[in-house]
Design a protein that fits this description.
The complex is a heterodimer of chains A (about 325) and B (about 250). Chain A is mostly helical and about 325 residues long. Helix content of chain A is about 75%, strand content about 0%. Chain B has 10 helices and 10 strands. The chains are: A mainly alpha (about 325), B alpha/beta (about 250).
Chain lengths: ~325, ~250
């Protein structure tokens, strides 16, 4: 009797020990991605050091001149290239994506939604070089036509001035990028809208509200944090997209003044130059600095998205 | 008894499932009608035909007529929003809208432009009083409605439904998600409300049906088996199935 009880206790203790061991291991495994991120940041930072000894952070961030042979590594033109292409893509994509997902969830028949969702996922899976080729063949030739079409009305506004006869422009990059980030914005928005309980919609509709009133007053306020998070997710995707943008944006290191001007995003800078002219001192270091900057931008926006999502979840628990 | 809702040859199909079969009913004005029957017999389906909630589903078909004071709710020139203003619904579970307590009640009056300014505030107070919630929330009208307890939320939903001035109030088992005290409270409200409104309830609680019903409808497998004044159906059911159900032989 005594014996069996002992062995029982023994197995109990073993079970618990195993559990503790597993918890420890999983914690280790779960922290691995965080560790990777840390390694990347530290690695980039260390390799940026030589440049930072040569010129200050402010000089690099606000410098307009990119002349590696002269030892000038101003990143401002590239930062402005990244920001303008991304912003333009977002302005083009966000309203369309919101309307698309609202239509699919609130108005369309369920069959339409199930038919269109796979198509959206497919769009997300197309290699970016394909989008780039499509941009080259379709969008780049189209942009000069758009430009000459809007000149009579908007030509006097600097933002729409036509100083660049080619189609390689911020606008081309923005359009291609908008198409590329749309699938993720749409599919996340659809999930967010579908998570709004039908009971809320019915509560409003039962009072004689129209669908649009219900969307405006009930669905959107409830879904707003999630929709913002969807857009921010598209945004961080847009920051990092390289190849397709590089193929259509012109890659001229100037600060773009008009959407028809060419630009030169950070990603394109790194992709175009890494591995070349490494004999120039500090060149490698400057490109690492650009990578670090990009990483920091993306981290900041993702953290923002995470915070918004946490708030959205807290709200969802009515 | 004066008929307010007249249902004629009503059929409802979900996809190919024949959910309601040739329903003919006359529901009395200013009384509480309770629809009872086992699960899946079509009680809620019948209720949803009265405020055209089946319009929201893609694959549901409704044929036949539902007349409210002689007007066919399914006539092509009748606006569905108009129908739902006249026929309010209290759902099984309360879903307060994502706004303050005050705005929840004001919501319907705002979208129908029924009142504004001081009049709106007075009406919000009035309907919260009718729903028996005013004293509990008067100090925190601007706090989110989701902070209320579930029983309070259901009374809030009652107040917001009354605020658009309906003629008929539908209740789809409005007390089934509530604790017994909150449920009793809602029942008391409904009993008072029949002075001014026609009430149609779906219930699976026989005790509630016995307690509240002036007019009783017993449904089984998508058909109305028996309907009549509650006294008569409860005490002297004509149909064997009704008798068996009332005696608790099946649910």
């Amino acid at each position: 009797m005594q014996n069996t009880q002992d062995s029982k206790l023994h197995t109990q203790a073993r079970r618990i020990r195993k559990d503790e061991l597993a918890a420890r291991n999983y914690r280790l495994a779960a922290s691995f991605p965080l560790f990777l991120l840390l390694i990347m940041v530290v690695g980039f930072f260390l390799r940026t050091q030589p440049l930072l000894e040569h010129s200050s952070v402010w000089e690099i961030l606000s410098g307009m001149q990119w002349r590696p042979s002269a030892g000038e590594f101003g990143l401002l033109t590239f930062i402005s290239g990244t920001l303008s292409v991304t912003l333009l893509a977002l302005l083009l994509a966000a309203p369309l994506c919101m309307l698309t997902s609202l239509f699919l969830v609130e108005y369309a028949k369920r069959r339409a939604l199930t038919a269109i969702l796979p198509a959206i996922d497919l769009l997300a899976g197309i290699p970016s070089v394909v989008y780039g080729v499509w941009g080259l063949l379709v969008i780049v030739p189209l942009v000069p036509q758009i430009s000459s079409f809007v000149q009579p009305w908007l030509g006097s506004i600097p933002l729409f001035a036509a100083n660049n006869p080619t189609g390689y422009s911020i606008l081309s990059g923005g359009i291609v990028l908008a198409v590329m980030i749309s699938p993720i914005i749409i599919s996340v928005s659809i999930e967010v809208l579908r998570s709004v309980p039908d009971g809320l919609r019915h509560g409003s509709l039962a009072l004689g509200a129209t669908r649009w009133q219900t969307i405006k007053k009930v669905v959107l306020p409830r879904a707003m944090p999630g929709l913002i998070a969807a857009i921010v997710m598209g945004l961080s995707r847009a920051f990092g997209e390289t190849l397709a943008v590089m193929m259509v944006v012109g890659n001229t290191p100037l600060i773009p003044r008009s959407i028809f001007d060419p630009g030169y995003p950070l990603t394109a800078l790194i992709a175009n130059n890494y591995g070349e002219m490494m004999s120039i001192p500090l060149y490698d270091s400057a490109l690492m600095g650009a990578a670090l900057l990009l990483l920091v931008i993306v981290i900041i926006f993702n953290l923002g998205a995470a915070l918004v999502l946490i708030r959205a979840n807290r709200r969802a628990q009515v | 008894m004066e008929t307010q809702i007249k249902i004629r040859d009503l059929n409802v199909y979900y996809n190919k499932v024949h959910a309601l079969k040739d329903i003919n009913l006359d529901l009395p004005r200013g009384q509480i009608t309770v629809i009872v029957g086992p699960s899946g017999c079509g009680k809620s389906t019948l209720l949803k035909t009265l405020n055209r909630f089946h319009d929201l589903a893609d694959d549901t078909q409704v044929t036949g007529h539902v007349e409210l004071d002689g007007v066919d709710l399914y006539a092509p020139d009748v606006e569905v929003t108009e129908v739902r203003t006249k026929v309010g619904l209290i759902a099984q579970r309360p879903f307060p809208l994502p706004m303050s307590i005050f705005e929840n009640v004001a919501y319907g009056m705002r979208i129908h432009k029924l009142a504004r300014g001081k009049e709106l505030r007075d009406k919000v107070k009035h309907y919260l009083e009718v729903a028996g919630l005013w004293d509990e929330v008067k100090g925190r009208l601007n706090t989110p409605a989701r902070d209320l307890s579930i029983g309070q939320q259901q009374r809030l939903c009652l107040a917001r439904g009354l605020a658009v001035e309906p003629e008929v109030i539908l209740g789809d088992e409005p007390t089934s998600s509530l604790d017994p005290i909150s449920a009793k409270f809602i029942e008391e409200r409904l009993e008072e409300l029949k002075k001014d409104y026609t009430v149609v309830l779906v219930s699976h609680v026989l005790r509630q049906a016995r307690h509240l019903a002036d007019y009783l409808v017993f449904m089984y497998l998508g058909e109305v088996v028996e309907a009549g004044p509650a006294e008569q159906v409860l005490n002297a059911p004509k149909n064997d199935r009704t008798r068996a159900y009332l005696q608790g032989e099946f649910y």
